[in-house]
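Good morning,

Attaching, inline, the backbone tokens for the sequence recovery test we're adding to the shared suite. The designed sequence is right after.
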């Protein structure tokens, strides 16, 4: 079965996921994965969808655009490339990196540059910036897969140095510890 990545963007309102999923059901598609969030007032949804063999990509796109026009949503449909890996996956450990501090340009770029330099992969990022100098108003939470074969102490040192240069408080915890400490 063919798969596509479907992204839907626009002003948030109730019923967006219901409208998208109804159209997909009518076209005999199956939603395999979905991630959706609200950024300020904007809806952002990404769907991995399997299509029946007889459904043309253009016909799906047209159905989505027509069906979502009244909600004024932007739709993008792209074929999902098949994964062909020749090297085995790199063993890693899941960590959560949290930063807090005054809002200013370059915070995300500064931290992610260090993460990327060590070959770590950001699997989820939540950042809320309300502006101003109150650290509690400006929080970034990175879920990161860190390769087990790197010098983690060097990574931690570099992250702490970068955070300090950006006037950020930083916390780095294994995801299991983070989840245990943050259970309700």
């Amino acid at each position: 079965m063919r798969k596509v990545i479907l992204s839907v963007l626009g002003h948030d309102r109730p019923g967006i996921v219901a409208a998208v999923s109804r159209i997909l059901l009518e076209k005999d598609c199956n939603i395999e994965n979905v991630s959706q969030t609200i950024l300020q007032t904007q809806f952002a949804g990404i769907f991995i969808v399997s299509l029946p063999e007889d459904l043309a990509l253009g016909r799906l796109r047209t159905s989505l655009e027509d069906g979502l026009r009244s909600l004024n949503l932007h739709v993008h449909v792209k074929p999902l490339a098949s994964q062909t890996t020749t090297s085995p996956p790199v063993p890693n450990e899941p960590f959560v990196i949290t930063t807090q501090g005054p809002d200013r340009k370059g915070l995300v770029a500064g931290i992610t540059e260090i993460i990327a330099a060590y070959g770590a992969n950001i699997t989820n990022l939540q950042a809320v910036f309300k502006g101003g100098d109150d650290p509690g108003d400006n929080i970034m939470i990175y879920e990161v897969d860190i390769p087990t074969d790197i010098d983690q102490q060097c990574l931690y040192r570099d992250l702490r140095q970068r955070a300090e240069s950006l006037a950020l408080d930083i916390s780095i915890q294994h995801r299991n510890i983070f989840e245990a400490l943050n259970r309700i």
